[in-house]
DNA sequence: GGCTGATCATAA
DNA sequence: TTATGATCAGCC
């Protein structure tokens, strides 16, 4: 299967997966026998959509689209936050518009995965941040990148940021990587990444109205 | 129950 | 070893 060449085709394929169970998709698209590990569903959906799995960059470079599967609880709300990208070694002094998180979030195909006894693909949708989202994300970026530069990676907790946060992303708590600290001094730190807060993902899903029952009054 | 910090598997 | 795909565990 060739990669989709348009958003329309990508979305069409994704909608074709709606209602399919993860077990069903595994029969034809699983690559390993070790089904059920943490990144399994994400990789499985990528292959089911005909995406080539690459090392770095967007999932669909020709369209600049990132694919995210998102686990949904029975009430229609996301169960987890969403990984965006690693905290970059360089580029923390960039503005939001040139930042790594912004390029990852510019265009995203969200694929909900519901749990109703089995895990089942829901109705996918394409998303870009609204103007309001952009403004708040830019503000988060300024705060978080500033903290990472001035306080060092070890002192930035997940409490900062309204829509986006910084959390550890490592093999274990003893992992270290070379980070660039204050005044550009090299230092070792626990690897960290940017994530979208769960409540922000919930608001994205709620705006689409396609991911399950809405809890509004 | 939600959130933060910790962790797991795989490919390149 | 790093990046990508995320979910797990347990404190609050």
What does this structure look like?
With 217 residues, the protein is an alpha+beta fold. The chain has a single domain, classed as ECO RV Endonuclease, Chain A (3-Layer(aba) Sandwich), CATH 3.40.600.10. Helix content is 30%, strand content 20%. The chain contains six helices and nine strands; from the N terminus they run H-H-H-E-E-H-E-E-E-H-E-E-E-E-H. The strands form three sheets. Strands 1, 3, 4 and 5 form a four-stranded mixed β-sheet that branches. A hairpin with a 3-residue loop joins strand 3 and strand 4. Helix 2 packs across helix 3.
Provide a short characterization of the protein structure.
This protein has 217 residues and is of the alpha+beta class.
Helix content: 25-40%
Q: Which word captures the global form?
A: globular
Cα radius of gyration in angstroms: 18 Å
How far from one another are the termini? 44 Å
Structural class: alpha+beta
Average pLDDT value? 91
Question: Superfamily at the CATH H level?
Answer: DNA mismatch repair MutH/Restriction endonuclease, type II
Question: If you consult CATH, what is the topology?
Answer: ECO RV Endonuclease, Chain A
Number of strands: 9
Biggest sheet, open or closed, and with what strands and sense? 4 strands, mixed
Task: Give the name of the CATH architecture.
Answer: 3-Layer(aba) Sandwich
């Amino acid at each position: 299967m060739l990669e989709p060449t348009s958003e329309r085709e990508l979305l069409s394929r994704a909608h074709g997966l709606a209602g399919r169970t993860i077990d069903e998709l595994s029969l034809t698209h699983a690559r390993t026998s070790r089904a059920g590990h943490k990144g399994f569903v994400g990789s499985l959906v990528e292959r089911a959509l005909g995406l080539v799995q690459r090392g770095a960059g967007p999932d669909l470079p020709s369209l600049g689209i990132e694919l995210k599967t998102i686990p949904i609880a029975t009430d229609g709300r996301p169960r987890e936050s969403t990984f965006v990208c690693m905290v970059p070694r360089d580029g923390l002094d960039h503005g939001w518009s040139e930042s790594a998180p912004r390029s990852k979030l510019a265009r995203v195909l969200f694929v909900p995965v519901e749990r109703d006894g089995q895990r089942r693909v829901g109705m996918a949708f394409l998303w870009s941040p609204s103007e309001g989202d952009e403004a708040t994300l830019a503000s988060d970026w300024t705060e978080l990148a500033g903290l990472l530069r001035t306080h060092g990676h070890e002192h930035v907790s997940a409490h900062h940021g309204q829509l986006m946060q910084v959390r550890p992303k490592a093999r274990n708590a003893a992992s270290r990587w070379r980070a660039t600290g204050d005044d550009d001094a090299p230092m070792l730190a626990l690897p960290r990444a940017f994530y979208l807060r769960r409540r922000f993902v919930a608001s994205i899903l709620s705006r689409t109205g396609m991911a399950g029952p809405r809890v509004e009054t």
